[in-house]
Each structure stands twice: as C-alpha cells, then as structure tokens.
Specification:
Chain lengths: 167, 185
C-alpha cells in the first residue's frame, strides 16, 4: 500500500527526512485518501514506538564499570596472544623443517645419529648452534648437512636430505 | 569524552590509551547488538571482544571516520555469521563453567529486561536481516549512510528495508501495545 509514492519516499516522510516538494505532495495526497492516512498513522506510531523502546534498550543494557574493565583486560590478553603467536610463527616453521630433515635421515642412520648430524651441521654453519638456525642462515646450514649426509647416508640419501630441506 | 571524539582520537593516533577510550564507547554497543540478536551473555561478550581485537588491529583501514560505526557493525555482523557457522559445524554439547554470583545476578537482570521487553518481542517476529536493520537503526541509532556501510547495501535499499520491516511491525506493535501505542501517538 504505497499509492503514488515509493517505499523510500514513505520512509523518508515518516522519519522526517523528506525534501519539501515531496512532503507537500504526500500531505496533499493523504488529506484526501483515508487508507493512506490510516497507513501513515500506523507507520508513524510504529516508528515512534521503536524510537522510544530503542532508547529503553540502550538504558537496559548499560554495562557496569567492572564488566567493562574485565572486557578490556580480556581484549588486551587476546591482542597479546595474537601478537605472540605472530612472533612464534617463524620459529615454529623452522622447527617443523628441522623435524622433517630428522625424519628423512632417521631410517638411514638412526634417529640419534640424525639428531647429532643436524647439530654438527649447525655448528659448522653460520648459525653456530641448532637453536640459532633461522630462515636467514638456512641455506649454509643445509649445505653443511648435505655434506655430512653424503658421508653417513650416501649420495642418494644426501640428495634426499637436500631436497627435503629446500621444500 | 563523547563517542565521536573517542573514535576520532583513536583513528588519528592509534595509541593504546585512545583505544581504551574507544573501547569504553563502543564495546557496550557491540555487546548489546549481540544480545539483541539472541546470543547468551557469555557468548555476546566473547564475540564483542573479538570484534574489539579486530578494531585494534584494523581500524586503520577505515578511510573515512564518519563511517567508522558502520564499519564496526559490519565487522560485528561478519563475526556473528562466523559464530553461527562454527556453531552449526560443531553441534556438540560443551561443558559449562559454573557462573560466579556477580555474573549470575547480571545475567538474570539482563535476561529479565530482555524477556519482558516489548522491543525484543517485536523484533522476534522479523527475519534476521530485518532484525538487524531495526536494531541498528533504533537501538544503535545508525544513520542511513552508516547502515549502508554496515549492511553493505545501497542507501535506497536501506530505506526500502526499513520501510518494509516497519510495515511488518506496525500491526504487531498496535496489537501488542494498545495502551502504550496511544502513548506513542
């Protein structure tokens, strides 16, 4: 039931956001159209009721200071957690790559020897220790490991280690 | 400090202390939006906190500060959709932690308010999209422009949806509030 007017025009009129010309046209129409008058009254009443009850909702759901502070603490805890996870990410990625190398070597020379080989390769590389192996010194570390693996696991084993380390 | 200043300051500086002022201004609104969308208090708070983390991390993406509130509720709406998807995927019974007395009392108060509210009853007759627009317009007082950003629709569609939601509510409001309706006239 919108007669000569669009839903947008009716909405703007009821919410008092309409331009003067359209407002005059709507008012000239509803004076002579009972159904539009009644429709306008229903819509205006509904709008006013929503405005009043909406304000009531804002008061009803007001938050106590203590809950607000608890919320703020929780947000900062989440932010710190997210930032820590972001910092840990490269370390975890390196650890996964080291684990993958150990897993390739273990069937060929045993898991303890594989771990020792990784440590030895790190010591003779710019990383100096397994704990300091990073993305930046990965290639020289892998080159050292390949040399060690060549002796321990043979040429094919060394190539496998190299390929795994590069993936 | 009013809400507008809190928003402007944080968007300008991105400083932690300005975030605290922003949090005070907008967290209760986001939490209330989730509660009015039918979530339980604990879930609403958890989700509102997730929204505030996104605000902290990504508020710099908001190009025009006038549309911050629209962007905020767009984020809230997306988080709500993600929540329902996750919940549907899980469909398992979780063990609930016992409530402390303070929270239990607060929950009771809010549930009583919500349960007895005409507004909550009225919006329960609407579908989710209509409910969104009515809550954001009449409780959160978003402008048409902000609604367009929040709901990712053109302003013309905002007006059309508002009109149709109100048209649907008009007889319900009239029937449910015969005496109060006179008060609104």
């Amino acid at each position: 039931m919108t007669h000569l007017f669009s839903e947008e025009e009716w909405n703007d009129y009821i919410e008092g956001r309409i331009d003067d010309e359209t407002r005059d046209r709507i008012e000239a129409h509803i004076i002579g159209c009972l159904s539009c008058w009644e429709f306008h009254e229903r819509m205006a009443t509904a709008t006013r009721a929503l405005v009043v009850c909406g304000a009531g909702m804002r008061v009803a759901f007001a938050l106590q200071d203590r809950r607000l502070n608890a919320g703020l603490r929780a947000v900062f805890a989440k932010i710190n957690e997210a930032e820590a996870a972001k910092l840990d990410q490269p370390l975890r990625a390196i650890q996964q790559r080291l684990d993958a190398l150990a897993a390739v070597m273990a069937p060929m020379c045993g898991s303890q020897t594989a771990t020792k080989a990784l440590r030895a390769a790190a010591q003779v590389s710019p990383a100096c220790s397994l704990e300091l192996v990073s993305e930046d010194n990965w290639t020289p570390f892998l080159t050292s490991l390949k040399t060690i693996a060549d002796v321990m696991c043979g040429e094919t084993g060394a190539r496998l280690v190299w390929e795994r380390g590069q993936s | 400090m009013d809400d507008r200043h809190a928003i402007e300051n944080y968007l300008l500086t991105g400083a932690e202390e300005d975030f605290c002022a922003l949090f005070e201004a907008v967290y209760p609104r986001v939490r209330r939006y989730f509660l009015l969308r039918g979530m339980e208090v604990g879930e609403a708070e958890e989700l509102a906190q997730d929204v505030m983390v996104i605000v902290y991390q990504r508020a710099g993406e908001v190009r025009e500060k006038e549309f911050f509130t629209g962007w905020l509720f767009k984020v809230a709406k997306n988080e709500l959709a993600r929540f329902w998807r996750r919940r549907q995927a899980r469909r398992r019974i979780a063990e609930m932690e016992p409530l402390d007395d303070e929270l239990a009392e607060m929950l009771l108060t809010e549930m009583e308010v919500a349960g007895s509210s005409d507004f909550v009853e009225w919006v329960s007759y609407l579908d989710p999209a209509e409910r969104d627009i009515i809550i954001l317009r009449f409780v959160e007082e978003l402008s048409y422009e902000e609604l367009a950003v929040a709901l990712a629709i053109p302003i013309g569609t905002v007006k059309w949806r508002l009109f149709n939601a109100k048209k649907k509510l008009a007889p319900i409001i009239k029937a449910s509030l015969p005496t109060a309706a006179r008060r609104f006239n």
